[in-house]
């Protein structure tokens, strides 16, 4: 039996090996044909496993190196708000991109911050989010376009993952908007959330940092672990919808300290009123 200290040491050694190797493997590339939303690339490495790269057909020349901030040198700048680190704004021809590495939070981050159990490439977090973004855009919902996603499979059934998405130009997070005290902004957000819910999107991390404001438009971002709920489970009073709203309300209390409690409550009621209003067709 492994002692606790021995197990921690073993896991640390394995993760150190992965960290050294992760950006040095080059997948072989092949193009998908037809009307597929993506380009597939797979690579096999005798010493470290396999990788899968998905690329939007609008982008050429994407390689595994694109997922390392070092590749972009001074053009990759860390995202300062939200998340657990591991995200960068990449300065390239407009609109630019956001690079995000998938990372754990909580206690598990102490043992495997970037490693996840591998059960197949279709179940990896980057592939799932890449495909979901394509589905949401096909539904006409305001989300960024996925540029590329990658998953690296390593020994002992683990993988690491990253995604690149287009940046929303001239956008700020909801809590940083200069319209934060504007009742119409909160009503607009209520209507946007309702659109996503009506289409079955369960955003499990709906918070102020995952809502972007640009001009008169609102976007939702960061769909890690999110999913489209089957129509049979998409009732008006579904529990998952209430959990989304409760998650956002907790974030508002934390991320909008400039609003007084009475202001927050008033603005939140405007959001709920717009959310519950019957959509016009």
TrEMBL record:
Family according to the record: Belongs to the protein kinase superfamily. KdkA/RfaP family.
Q: What is its main location?
A: membrane
- Function noted in UniProt: Catalyzes the ATP-dependent phosphorylation of the 3-deoxy-D-manno-octulosonic acid (Kdo) residue in Kdo-lipid IV(A) at the 4-OH position.
GO CC entries: plasma membrane
Q: In which pathway does it act?
A: Bacterial outer membrane biogenesis; LPS core biosynthesis
EC number per UniProt: 2.7.1.166
| InterPro entries associated with the record | KDO_kinase (IPR022826), Kinase-like_dom_sf (IPR011009)
Know the name of this protein?
3-deoxy-D-manno-octulosonic acid kinase
* Species this chain originates from: Marinobacter salarius
């Amino acid at each position: 039996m492994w002692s606790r200290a021995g197990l921690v040491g073993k896991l640390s050694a394995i993760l150190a090996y992965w960290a050294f190797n992760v950006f040095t493997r080059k997948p072989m590339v092949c193009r998908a044909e037809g009307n597929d939303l993506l380009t597939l690339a797979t690579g096999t490495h005798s010493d470290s496993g396999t990788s899968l790269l998905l690329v939007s057909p609008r982008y050429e020349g994407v390689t595994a190196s694109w997922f390392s901030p070092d590749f972009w040198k001074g053009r990759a700048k860390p995202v300062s708000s939200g998340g657990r680190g591991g995200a960068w704004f990449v300065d390239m021809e407009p609109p630019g991109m956001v690079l995000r590495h998938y990372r754990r939070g909580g206690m598990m981050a102490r043992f495997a911050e970037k490693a996840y159990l591998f059960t197949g490439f279709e179940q990896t977090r980057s592939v799932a989010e890449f495909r979901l973004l394509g589905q949401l855009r096909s539904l006409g919902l305001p989300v960024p376009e996925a540029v590329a996603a990658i998953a690296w499979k390593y020994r002992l059934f683990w993988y690491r993952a990253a995604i690149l998405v287009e940046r929303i130009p001239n956008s700020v997070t909801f809590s940083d908007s200069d319209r934060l005290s504007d009742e119409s902004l909160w009503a607009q957000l209520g209507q946007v959330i309702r659109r996503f819910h009506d289409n079955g999107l369960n955003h499990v991390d709906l918070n102020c940092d995952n809502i972007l404001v640009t001009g008169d438009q609102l976007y939702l971002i960061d769909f890690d672990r999110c999913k489209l709920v089957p129509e049979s489970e998409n009732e008006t009073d579904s529990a998952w919808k209430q959990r989304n709203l409760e998650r956002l309300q907790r974030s508002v209390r934390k991320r909008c300290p400039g609003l007084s409690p009475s202001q927050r409550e008033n603005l939140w009621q405007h959001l709920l009123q717009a959310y519950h209003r019957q959509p016009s067709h």
